[in-house]
Design goal:
The complex is a heterodimer of chains A (115) and B (112). Chain A is built from no helices and eleven strands. The chains are: A mainly beta (115), B mainly beta (112).
């Protein structure tokens, strides 16, 4: 079975632009979460979606938004890009929202660089 | 406010010996703790988890110990193998909140 797939793998944008990152969860997984990982730090939670509804939001500005589609894939959108948005963006899926008893499975991420 | 801390940025261990990775936390509402391994250019891979109602969980070469009174957990890898060289993250979730709170990671280097 395919794992979590993310596209694109790398992306270069300039300040002020907009970006859309995409994620396809493992087949049968209905929950998708997004994380931002800055170099030298652990991932920071951005959003969690389950059954197309937002179930959780981290401490990120309104420039960050996401949605989940009927096939459970997801998009993360970031507007008005700042230099500080340069990071690895990780998508994770699980059958349902959960953590220890239903660990999240991660994709390889999208490396976003802002010039 | 770092709720999950991994105070050792790196750890070097001889192949075949035990690797012990440590993690401290501050939030007593955490109900699950997880360890993930990450290779360069790949996403984190789940290793093992432990519920806050337990003090030990074992899976093959990996054992996680939880000391709630000290708010401390550790991951033991025995015996360490070259393929274990990676960055290890400790993560936690609170009751009713499914987001994971992560430590900064510890880079484990297994020496031949």
């Amino acid at each position: 079975d395919a794992g979590v797939t993310q596209s694109p793998t790398h992306l270069i944008k300039t300040r002020g632009q907009h970006v859309t990152l995409r994620c396809s969860p493992i087949s049968g997984h209905k929950s998708v979460s997004w994380y931002q990982q800055v170099l030298g730090q652990g991932p920071q939670f951005i959003f969690q979606y389950y059954e197309k509804e937002e179930r959780g939001r981290g401490n990120f500005p309104d420039r960050f938004s996401a949605r989940q589609f009927p096939n459970y894939s997801s998009e993360l959108n970031v507007n008005a890009l700042l230099l500080g948005d340069s990071a690895l963006y990780l998508c994770a899926s699980s059958p349902r929202p959960g953590t220890g008893n239903q660990p999240q499975h991660f994709g390889d991420g999208t490396r976003l660089s802002i010039l | 406010d770092q709720q999950v801390k991994q105070n050792s940025p790196s750890l070097s261990v001889q192949e075949g010996r035990i690797s012990i990775l440590n993690c401290d936390y501050t939030n007593s509402m955490f109900d699950y703790f997880l360890w993930y391994k990450k290779y360069p250019a790949e996403g984190p891979t789940f290793l093992i988890s432990i519920s806050s109602i337990k003090d030990k969980n074992e899976d093959g070469r990996f054992t996680v110990f939880l000391n709630k009174s000290a708010k401390h957990l550790s991951l033991h890898i025995v015996p360490s193998q070259p393929g274990d060289s990676a960055v290890y993250f400790c993560a936690a979730s609170a009751v009713g909140n499914y987001q994971l709170i992560w430590g900064a990671g510890t880079k484990l280097i297994i020496k031949p």
